[in-house]
Write a structure and sequence with these properties.
- With 71 residues, the protein is an all-beta fold.
- The strands form two sheets. The protein has a four-stranded antiparallel β-sheet with strand order 3-2-5-6, with no helix packed on it.
- Strand 2 and strand 3 form a beta hairpin.
């Protein structure tokens, strides 16, 4: 589960990046209203390792969060 909050209505792109910064999975491309949101996505197809979740709003602002996947 990925939780996030936005302070204004925004078109979001959320994706998973590998440790080299290469996009390996798109999670969503949708418009969201201001507020707190959660999305659920299976990461079972990914090998154990370090990944980054990139949240980009309105093609400008972006936030990157590091995650570690261990089975």
């Amino acid at each position: 589960q990925i939780d996030f909050s936005i302070n204004k209505n925004s078109y979001l792109n959320i994706s998973i990046l590998n440790s080299n910064g290469k996009e390996i999975k798109k999670l969503l491309r949708e418009e969201y209203e201001e507020g707190h949101h959660s999305i659920i996505s299976s990461l079972n197809s990914l090998n154990d390792g370090v990944y980054f979740i990139k949240i980009q709003a309105n093609s400008k602002e972006q936030f990157v969060h590091k995650i570690v996947k261990i089975r």
